[in-house]
Write a structure and sequence with these properties.
With 346 residues, the chain is α+β, with helices and mostly antiparallel strands. The protein has three domains: 126 residues, Pelota, domain A (SH3 type barrels, Roll), CATH 2.30.30.870; 114 residues, Nucleotidyltransferase, domain 5 (2-Layer Sandwich), CATH 3.30.420; 92 residues, Ribosomal protein L30/S12 (60s Ribosomal Protein L30, Chain: A), CATH 3.30.1330.30. Helices cover 35% and strands 32% of the residues. Strands 1-2-7-3-4-5-6 form a seven-stranded antiparallel beta sheet. A five-stranded mixed beta sheet has the order 10-9-8-11-12, with helices on both faces. Helix 4 links the parallel strand 11 and strand 12. The longest helix has 18 residues.
Length: 346
């Protein structure tokens, strides 16, 4: 993401998204009542004409009513009423319209910005500068592939090994399995690859790549994890492996915070709270040190905004969780709102 302009007097931020992740950040930022200013197309029909009219390029200020993040189409669809636009003869103020926001096309958002929303945009700018990372958790039987995106871990592919040690063609099938892993890893247009797993499978893959003098070796970071499953990928996040490779990452921070929350919950030591009412009490009593907030909650419950503002005044840290990631899905099962406490409140 690139920020092209900031006007504090009007609340306008002009930006360009450079990826699907950037569009997701914008979708999490937009709220009903905000204004989006962008170029679009309107069909203009001459009165009395029998044809369907001609599409004209226009510049529109749209009052946001709904937002749809269309991952597969690689766009963000923003619908609402037209506030104003140019050329005026092609724009009908008050009519409904949908703007498609796509990567590499500039647009503006005009609103009263909250601090956590500005922080999200800053993170999106920083994420664009970090190495892009793919991960693989593997053993002799299975390999799980994923990429780390701004909104969480995207699991993409699972490969199973058909080789059995009782099979006379075991070695041949094993090499075919490693070759398929190499092919998948080579398909990623990323700067870094993290390959991890239990046992010796990853070591055997490494030896094969070394024999072939594969260029992949320059990209791969070799690590250990307990399982060749999604849980193995989550283990890498919790261990801080991604931070070592590419600097701090949102999904890793979420995983660590959620693990801390669940640990206090399991201990029943009174040093965590979840649900709006208990968390509100912890903030008011200055007991909350860190708030865990699901991003979707900020879009649907206005009272959460006020609680975050109070938490900031009380010097509590705030982390916004993505509902797309595994930590966010777990947080959602606790109402999407939790806190870590420095002392018991009940």
């Amino acid at each position: 993401m690139r920020i092209l302009k900031k006007d504090h007097s009007t609340g306008e931020i002009k930006l360009t998204c450079e990826s699907l992740e950037d569009l997701w950040h914008v979708e999490r930022t937009l709220q009903e009542g905000d204004t989006v200013r962008a170029k679009s197309w309107r069909r203009f029909k001459v009165e009395g004409s029998d044809d369907s009219g001609e599409k004209k390029e226009v510049k529109i200020d749209l009052m946001v009513e709904r937002v749809e993040f269309a991952k597969l189409a690689n766009r963000l669809r923003v619908g609402g009423k037209i506030k104003s636009g140019t050329p005026e003869e092609f724009v009908q103020t008050g009519s409904y319209h949908t703007i498609d926001l796509e990567p590499h096309y500039p647009f503006s958002i005009i609103k009263v910005w909250k601090s956590h929303q500005l922080k999200r945009l800053e993170e999106a700018v920083s994420e664009g500068k970090r190495p892009k990372i793919a991960l693989c958790a593997m053993d002799d039987e299975k390999a799980v592939f994923a990429t780390l995106r701004g909104y969480g871990v995207a699991y993409e592919f699972e490969l199973e090994n058909s080789a059995s040690k009782r099979d006379e063609k075991y070695e041949e099938k094993q090499q075919k399995y490693f070759a398929e892993i190499e092919k998948k890893l080579s398909s990623y247009t990323v700067e870094k690859l993290i390959v991890a797993g239990p046992g010796f499978a990853k070591e055997n893959l490494k030896k094969m790549l070394e024999r072939k003098h594969s260029a992949l070796l320059q990209k791969i970071i070799w690590e250990n994890c307990s399982y060749a499953e999604r849980s193995g990928i989550n283990e890498l996040l919790k261990k801080g492996v991604v931070s070592k490779v590419a600097g701090e990452q949102r999904i890793e921070e979420e995983a660590k915070l959620l693990e801390s929350f669940l640990l206090h919950l399991h201990k029943d030591d009174g040093l965590c709270a979840y649900g709006v009412a208990p968390v509100k009490s912890s903030i008011e009593l200055s007991a909350a040190t860190h708030l865990l907030v699901l991003d979707e909650l900020l879009r649907t419950k206005k009272e959460i905004e006020a609680l975050l503002e109070l938490a900031e005044k009380k010097k509590a840290k705030i982390t916004i969780f993505s509902q797309e990631g595994e930590p966010g899905k777990q947080l959602a099962s606790f109402g999407g709102f939790a806190a870590l406490l420095k002392f018991r409140i009940s």
